[in-house]
Amino acid sequence: xxxxxxxxxxxxxxxxxxxxxxxxxxxxxxxxxxxxxxxxxxxxxxxxxxxxxxxxxxxxxxxxxxxxxxxxxxxxxxxxxxxxxxxxxxxxxxxxxxxxxxxxxxxxxxxxxxxxxxxxxxxxxxxxxxxxxxxxxxxxxxxxxxxxxxxxxxxxxxxxxxxxxxxxxxxxxxxxxxxxxxxxxxxxxxxxxxxxxxxxxxxxxxxxxxxxxxxxxxxxxxxxxxxxxxxxxxxxxxxxxxxxxxxxxxxxxxxxxxxxxxxxxxxxxxxxxxxxxxxxxxxxxxxxxxxxxxxxxxxxxxxxxxxxxxxxxxxxxxxxxxxxxxxxxxxxxxxxxxxxxxxxxxxxxxxxxxxx
Length: 356
Hints:
- By secondary structure, the chain is α/β, with parallel strands linked by helices.
- Helix content is 26%, strand content 15%.
- The chain is built from five helices and 20 strands.
- It has helices spanning 2-23, 241-244, 264-275, 300-303, 307-355; strands spanning 31-33, 38-40, 59-61, 69-70, 83-85, 93-94, 107-109, 131-133, 141-142, 155-157, 165-166, 179-181, 189-190, 203-205, 213-214, 227-229, 251-254, 260-261, 279-281, 289-291.
- It has a twelve-stranded mixed sheet. Strands 4-6 form a two-stranded parallel ribbon.
- A hairpin with a 4-residue loop joins strand 1 (31-33) and strand 2.
- The radius of gyration is 35 Å and the shape is elongated.
């Protein structure tokens, strides 16, 4: 009994001593807070990732340093880490395997760096990541393997990059993705199936790109989409079928600040959109005409009832003209027939008189 009591008293002390021992390994220039399991190395003038951290670290802030490169196995001792912040650190290259073994990491912030591309093995070790922030970098192209291990990511921030191309299958492994932020990039078209497999996607932000063309199958099978932002792009026209692939009840669509050509066809597209109860164009009053010049800067809503009138009048004029032409042709044909018939009877009469 005495031995057992002694062990109960000694063992907690040894655990505490061991834990305190790991937190004595705080990197120079960093602030290590054992109670919060938080290491703050922000603005510490670091040029490389420290080799040693307290192994119980759950939150690490490396923001505002001059790291340049994230090498492979850079965080191999931080197997308990949940949050890793490395924003504004002049990172130019992320080597494959930089985040290997970070099986508990659920938030990774790499925004405001100088990352221009990511390798096919960039996401190795991030299978439980929930939120990935890559905004304000210089990414130009998303390939089909870049995000292949991000099975559990729900929020992906790619806004304010230079993305001009998204290859088919780029998001195919991200079946749990709920928010995709692609605003302020250089996309000029959306191809069929580009968002395939994103059945759980709720927010798709494409504002501030240069999108002029959208294939009719671009939004197919988006069964959870509640917000689609296509404002501030280069759209001149759009097909009604483009939005029919969205199968969510209550999708809100933003389409203002585009290069709309206001004609009867566009009026019909928006008319049909208004008739679909599951789709709502929230900013219809701010859909402004760029073409034709006579309607420039006018809201489509203020002229939409008139756009098809001219076309209707033109069709009526053409119809009436064709009808009159046909009737005139029939009348002329009938007159010619009668004339020919009269002439034939006159000739027969003359022949009959000459025989007498």
